[in-house]
Amino acid sequence: MTLWRQLLGYIPVNLANIIVSFGSILILTRILDAAEFGRYALVMVTMQLIHTAAFTWMEASMERYHARAVRKGDLRNHLNTLYKLGAAFAVSGFSIFLVTIYVLPISQDLKTVLTFALISTTLQIIMRLGFEAHKAANRVSRYSVLYSSQMIISFTVGILLILLTPLREAGPFAGLIIGNALVLLVDLPFMLKRMKGGVFQGQRSKDYLLYGLPICFSLILEYALSTSDRFVIAYLLTDADVGRYSAGYGLANRSIDVLFIWIGLAITPHLVRTLESAGLETCLVELKSYGAILLLVTMPAAVGLGLVAQPASLLLGEDVREVGRQIIPWIVGAGVINGMISYYIQRAFMLGGKTIMLPVAMITPMIINIALNFILLPRFGVMGAVYATLISYSLGVVMAFAMARRYFPLPLPWEAFVKCALACAAMAAGVLALPLADDINAFVEVAIKGAVGASIYCVIVVATNAADCRTLIRDILSHKTRKPVEA
C-alpha cells in the first residue's frame, strides 16, 4: 500500500516530534516554575496564532498547487510567487507586530519573550514554505532530515539558554531562532535554484489568497477552540494555573497530536496527487484508508495513556504534577476527537474546493468553548476548562462532518472504528486486571501496562485486519518499501 510506504518515510520526523514534545514538557516543567511555564505557554500560543493568521494560507497553497504546477510545467513561477509573498509578509508582519508588542500595557519581561518569539516565527514562514514544497514533491528524505534537525537543534539550544543565561522562558524561542536560521542556510539555496527563472505572478497570488484564507480563518478558529482556555484561565485565575493546566494538557494532547501529525504529513500531498492524476473514486478509497489508519494508531494511544495517567504524570515537574494527573485521561479523548476534525474531516473541504466553509464549521464550537470556560472555570477550577473542551470538541466533530458531506463524499471508516474499539476495550480490560502491587515503581508500572496493553491490542487488530494492517507487516517483513519519485 502506497500510503503505508509514505508513512514509513516520515518516521524520523515523528521521532523528532516525540523527543521534542515530551522532552519540552519533562524538562521545562522542572527548570521553570509554574508561573514561568505559564507565561511560556501563553507566548507560544500567541505566536502560533499570529503565524496561523498571517502566513498559513501560503503554506496551504504551496502544498495544494504544487502537483498542478508540475503537471503544467509551471513550477518555477509557483515557487517564485509564494517565496516572494512569504518574504513580503514576513518583513511587514514583523514590523507591525513588533510595534504592537511594545505599545501593549504588559511587563517588560513579557515583551522580551514576545520579541524573541516574533523573530522565530518570522524566520519560520520562509523555512516552512520549503518544507511544504519538499512534502508536495515527495522529497521525503530531505524533508525528514531538515525538519528533524530543526526540531532537535532548537530544542537543545533552547534548554541550554535557559540553564546558562538569564533568558528563562525566552530561552526556547531564542533556540527556535537559531534552529530556524541554520536550516534556512542549508535549504534556501536549494529552493532558490528550483525557482530560478520564475517570475512573480499577481493573479496567481490572488488565487492562492482566495484558496488559503478560508483555511487560515478555520485554523484560527480551530486554534482558538483548543487554546483560548489558557487566556481565560489567565484572566480568571493565575499564570501558575495556566502553567499547571498547560503542562497536563500538553503531555496528554501532544501524545495524540504527534501521531496525527505523522500520518497527516504523508496524506495531504498524496491525496492531492491522487485526485489530480487518478480521479475521485481512487481518491475516496485512499481517503477511507487514511481515516482507518488514524483510528488504528490514535485510539489505542489515547486509551493507553488514560490507563497510565497516574504514573505518567511523574514526567511533569512537581509543581504541576497533580493537576496533570487529573486532566490527562480526559484530554487524550478530546485529542482524538479534535484530531479527527483537523486531520480527517477538514480534508474533505480542501479536496472539494470548499475551503471557504471551513471557518463556518468551527465558529460555533469555538464560541461555545469560550462561553463554557467562563461558566465552568469559577466553579470547577482548571477542570472546568477540561469539561468545556470535551463538550465543544464533541459538538465540533458532528457539525464539521455534517457540513463536509454536503461538499465532498467523505467516507467514514466504520469497520475500522468498530474493530479498533473492540481491541481497545480488550486492552483496557487486560491492563486493569493486572495484579500489580500498590507500591510498584511508576516507570515499571508504565512499562508493564504498556507492554501488556500493546500486545493485546496488536493481536486483535492483526487477527481482524483492522485498517488493512497486515499489509504494513508484509511490506516491512519483505522490505518492499520504495523511495518515492521526486517532482
Give me the secondary-structure category: mainly alpha
Order of helices and strands: HHHHHHHHHHHHHHHHH
Shape: globular
Mean pLDDT over the full residue set: 87
E-strand count: 0
Cα Rg: 22 Å
Helical percentage: over 70%
Poorly predicted spans: 480-487
Describe this structure in words.
- There is one protein chain.
- This protein is an all-alpha fold.
- It has one domain (2-478).
- It has helices at residues 2-9, 11-31, 34-71, 75-103, 108-136, 140-164, 171-195, 202-236, 239-278, 280-307, 309-312, 321-351, 358-380, 382-407, 414-432, 442-464, 469-478.
Question: What layout of secondary structure does this protein have?
Answer:
Blueprint: H1 2-9, H2 11-31, H3 34-71, H4 75-103, H5 108-136, H6 140-164, H7 171-195, H8 202-236, H9 239-278, H10 280-307, H11 309-312, H12 321-351, H13 358-380, H14 382-407, H15 414-432, H16 442-464, H17 469-478
Helix pairs in contact: 1-9, 2-6, 2-9, 3-4, 3-5, 3-8, 3-9, 4-5, 4-7, 5-7, 6-7, 8-9, 8-13, 8-14, 9-10, 9-12, 10-12, 10-15, 10-16, 12-14, 13-14, 15-16
Short recap of the structure:
The protein is mostly helical. The protein is built from 17 helices and no strands. The chain has one domain.
Features:
487 residues, mainly alpha, 85% helix, globular, disordered C terminus
